[in-house]
Amino acid sequence: MSTSKNYPKSFSHIGITVPNIKEAVKFYSEVMGWYVIMEPSTVKKEKETAIGQMCIDVFGDDWTTFEIAHLATSDGVGVELFSFPNGVKEAPEFNPFNTGLFHFCIQDPNIEELIEKIVAYGGKQRMPIRAYYPEDKPFKMCYVEDPFGIVFEIYTHSYELTYSSGAYAK
């Protein structure tokens, strides 16, 4: 009998479908500062290429082409942007009560400035900036939307520090 030790897996990337690939690359690179590691390009449904076959495996046969771009955060997490010619081009319904991806979170110590920039680029601030543990830690958070209606959260400090006991405790 073999025993295997469980270990925490790292986060590789997230895929986000957007209505306009060029506008999304502009927003995420200029507002978030994410590195563009692959400019927008077109993928065609074709069994002769590895990417074409893989996408047929993932998406099935009901597509012909789509656009894709790859970005990366400062800590190396990938952001894969997709834009399909067909499909709904409006903001997804915000329904955190249903099963599925609710949001992703990014981190920036200057939360106020980042929110101003998000709004200036057509995004929205969904709530006031709130303090986590206001008596004990200088941590803040806020939910926002990108210009395409995709909801995400901003933390001023790392996830580990935010939820660990004793971090920044008086």
Automatic annotation (TrEMBL):
Superkingdom of this protein's organism: Bacteria
Residues of the VOC domain: 10-157
Membrane-traversing stretches: none
Alphabetically ordered keywords of this record: Metal-binding
Xref: InterPro entries: Glyas_Bleomycin-R_OHBP_Dase, Glyas_Fos-R_dOase_dom, MMCE/EMCE_epimerase, VOC_core
Secretion signal span: none
Protein name: VOC family protein
Source organism: Algibacter miyuki
